């Protein structure tokens, strides 16, 4: 960069500091706002049909066909939408016992899911059972901390994927929970669990620096929060990393009144969200981008 | 301070100016939308599901037994009606098979609370009920373990402070969570004796951190799924009668 440009820009920056946020709009003409909508589910656990009328607090909630209607209307409103799932797609209703996950994957494909990560229950018919259903999934499985090299799943997952919506680059990566003690070793076989924080740090580096993403999303099946210090969860992952804008969580079936704002390792606010389980809720996070080079990232306002 | 901000601002501008198009994240809005009853189902999706749905429900909807009440694993501290019912049913269904095969009786049953995946709702019980309670494909196994391992299991239960389903086992802890009474089929545990413990292969392999099944003297795989044992039990009885009792209690 030429020195003159540098001086020119520092003059602008000085004005910004002096005048404050209020005058920002006066500097720009016709600021274009782009909106990216992220829709998400977690721990749907083979719940295809809505709950029946006698099912306590879940009565009459959920159902894939109703979720489809809702997703369609949101996509109609904003075509720049990604639909993601944070794992534990399998297990929980006889649909899984009868069809082994075929219907779950076919429906997620019909709903045009963009990506999912892998939960511990997705191993319930073994790595072989998961592999057997892959032909029914028209979306990628993203996981950065399971090494499937010595299993049949080798090369059938990706650590991350970059999506382009309205010219913006959205990087999505996945992290999974420690399988030992949670899943029968006969099921996960030689799947190797790698440190999720290290994996997330590497993913954010790649997505930010190499792929130059405008937005970074982590699909996590680690769980929202554990009291024990040494057990990694989404809140700890958020606080130990940088450049993640949103962690979409799962595993703990946590119903949050609203997404949690967490300060990352750089002191910057980001979001952790999870929408309970069984397809009862759909998470919706809207990211607004201003086509405006004079605005500092610190000014992002979060409304939850 | 102003100087620091200036530097920070300049750096950000520098970074932003290298990228095309230059954008900045200005606002994030997050909310949760319930998939509520009022939403109309997408007809294409509903039609796609229907043949799968019909096949599953036709198979599962025949009535097997009756539940006089609703039983949930949240009701009860150290033992629950649904957990007791399950562990007792597993004992009753698997002991004759085990005895025929080995000549031994099962000494006790130990499952995990997390394995109860749904409540039994008051009214008709169908195969579907069994699928909801026990969606996993886990099979019953009987581990032959030494009394020493049984004591480790009791310590596990004492520390877990929760209602893992047990049958033929009695455990009393005091206010300090120390064991004051531990009986297997009414007898104190003998460290050197071999006990035959029915569980499932998930727990036998260390699931839920139940590490005390290893080393075992031997393992008997019954090839009998927990769910099928429940279905067979439901088929056999007319009305179930799960109750909270004194098999695992705390005295103050």
What does this protein look like?
The complex is a heterodimer of chains A (304) and B (252). Chain A is an alpha/beta fold and 304 residues long. Helix content of chain A is 27%, strand content 21%. Chain A has a single domain (3-303), classed as 4-Layer Sandwich (Purple Acid Phosphatase, chain A, domain 2), CATH 3.60.21. In chain A, the strands form three sheets. In chain A, strands 5-6-8-9-11-10 form a six-stranded mixed β-sheet. In chain A, strands 3-2-1-12 form a four-stranded mixed β-sheet, covered by helices on one side. In chain A, strand 10 and strand 11 (269-273) form a beta hairpin. Residues 1-28 of chain A have low confidence and may be disordered. Chain B has helices spanning 2-17, 43-60, 81-102, 127-133, 147-160, 201-204, 226-236; strands spanning 24-34, 63-67, 108-110, 123-126, 139-146, 166-167, 169-173, 179-184, 187-188, 194-200, 218-225, 248-250. Chain B is an alpha+beta fold and 252 residues long. Chain B is built from seven helices and twelve strands. In chain B, a hairpin with a 5-residue loop joins strand 7 and strand 8 (179-184). Chain B has one domain (60-250): Alpha-Beta Complex (5'-nucleotidase,  domain 2). Chains A and B meet through helix 1, helix 3, helix 4, helix 5 and strand 12 of A and helix 1, strand 1, helix 2 and helix 4 of B.
Question: Main traits of this protein?
Answer:
heterodimer; A: 304 residues; Purple Acid Phosphatase, chain A, domain 2; four-stranded mixed sheet; 13 strands; globular; B: 5'-nucleotidase,  domain 2; five-stranded mixed sheet; 12 strands
Shape of chain A: globular
Give the proportion of residues in helices of chain B: 25-40%
Low confidence ranges of chain B: 9-20
Strand order of the largest sheet of chain B: 6-3-10-5-11
Outline of this structure?
The complex is a heterodimer of chains A (304) and B (252). By secondary structure, chain A is an alpha/beta fold. Helix content of chain A is 27%, strand content 21%.
